[in-house]
TrEMBL record:
Region (Disordered), start-end ranges: 309-347
Residue ranges occupied by any Histidine kinase/HSP90-like ATPase domain in the UniProt entry: 277-378
Alphabetical list of InterPro entries matching this protein: HATPase_C_sf (IPR036890), HATPase_dom (IPR003594), Sensor_HK_TwoCompSys (IPR050482), Sig_transdc_His_kin_sub3_dim/P (IPR011712)
Domain of life assignment: Bacteria
Species of provenance: Nonomuraea rhodomycinica
Protein name: Sensor histidine kinase
Gene Ontology CC: membrane
Molecular function in Gene Ontology: phosphorelay sensor kinase activity; protein dimerization activity
Length: 379
């Protein structure tokens, strides 16, 4: 640990012993020292009383930091003994004892120390009004310390609750993934195991039947692989902000300016945001691979009832001139890609249909280029 780190650690430790309220208590202690000196007591009294007061301040921090009761008892004894011997002004030092008692949630002891300090002040013939003020000054640090301790305990309890909720959320997510993997892979692997054993037996006696079983095994494995990929895709659902940022970076890298129009903030349901994010990814992939575009744009529109995103470019128009503007409807599309091939927009159409959304893909209304637009209801 560096010297700077050690100094910061010591400062943090000291701050824990002497909080902001301690400043008033230190000022009160200084006032008592000056008042005592102004009374011109014998020199030996000053030599004894001033270090005694400083010792009370040190014990106040030590008794708060250490849970051992003997430090607390020593502090109370030092405070009350000093007041009994040196006079009523030293009653202000009882604040160090009431603060510790309040921090340890000992309300009766806070009241007892305050009462003892007031009685000693009356025994020294202090004015009753001064005794009342002194009593309030001694009592308040104990009450404030008790409130601070309760607040600190509540904050710690809330932090512990948050940690437990986070742990339970992780456990629940692991259980969900385990269930999904069991449902997706368990059955398929069982079928593969049974068919593999059957094929091994048929190879020598019925090669044709063995070939059929191998084809079935291949189909089962491919289906299981597709299901696992779909599950992983769902686990890794992208965020809209990240996809827009990645799209701008990707187009910039190939010298295609990308203009983005979107609100400053948004709060969308997770499935809706996931669909719009996939739309941005698919649209920009189309721009980069097929469009030969010079510019493109991304527009995110939100209202109370729906959310939509549109990707446009000025590149090559769709290969099929018969439907220049594409088609629009629940999950409808004029076909994936610019020539109707590929599966990207097909999957996007299925996602949109599942959420009751619409998809439009085709030539821009003003002619030329390509337009991909997805809109999803929010209600």
């Amino acid at each position: 640990m560096s010297r700077w780190s050690r100094w910061r650690a010591r400062r943090a430790s000291l701050a824990g012993l002497y909080d902001v309220r301690s400043l008033l208590m230190l000022l009160a202690t200084g006032w008592a020292v000056l008042f005592h000196i102004a009374q011109r007591p014998p020199l030996w009294s000053q030599v004894v009383v001033v270090p005694w007061a400083l010792g009370v301040v040190a014990l106040g921090g030590l008794a708060k930091a250490r849970p051992e009761r003997h430090w607390y008892v020593a502090l109370v004894a030092a405070v009350l003994t000093l007041e009994a011997w040196a006079g009523w002004p030293w009653a202000v030092l009882a604040t160090w004892a009431t603060r510790v008692a309040g921090w340890r949630l000992r309300g009766k002891e806070v009241a007892g120390i305050t009462a003892a300090a007031c009685l000693l002040a009356l025994a020294h013939r202090a004015d009753p009004s001064v005794v009342v003020v002194m009593g309030a000054f001694v009592l308040l640090p104990g009450l404030f310390a008790a409130q601070s301790r309760r607040t600190a305990d509540l904050i710690e309890e809330l932090r512990e609750t948050r940690r437990e909720l986070a742990r339970l959320a992780v456990v629940e997510e692991r259980n969900r993934i385990a269930r999904d993997l069991h449902d997706l892979v368990g059955h398929s692997l069982s079928v593969v195991a049974v068919k593999t054993e059957l094929t091994r037996r048929l190879v020598a006696v019925d090669p044709g039947r063995a070939e059929t079983e191998l084809a079935d095994i291949d189909a089962v494995v491919r289906r299981a692989l597709a299901e696992v990929r779909q599950a992983v895709t769902n686990y890794k659902q992208p965020t809209l902000a990240a996809e827009i940022s990645g799209a701008v970076s990707a187009t910039r890298s190939v010298d295609i300016p990308c203009a983005v129009t979107m609100p400053d903030t948004w709060d969308l349901p997770v499935p809706v945001e996931g669909l719009l994010a996939w739309t941005v990814r698919e649209g920009i992939t189309n721009v980069l691979r097929h469009s030969r575009a010079r510019t493109c744009s991304i527009t995110l529109t939100l209202d109370e009832r729906s959310a939509g995103v549109e990707i446009r470019d000025d590149g090559a128009a769709p290969a099929d001139p018969g439907e220049p503007n594409g088609s629009e409807g629940p999950g409808g599309s004029d076909g994936p890609g610019r020539s109707g091939g590929g599966n990207g927009l097909v999957g996007l159409s299925e996602r949109a249909a599942a959420l009751g959304g619409t998809i439009t893909a085709g030539e821009r209304p003003e002619g030329g280029g390509f337009r991909l637009h997805v809109r999803v209801p929010l209600t």
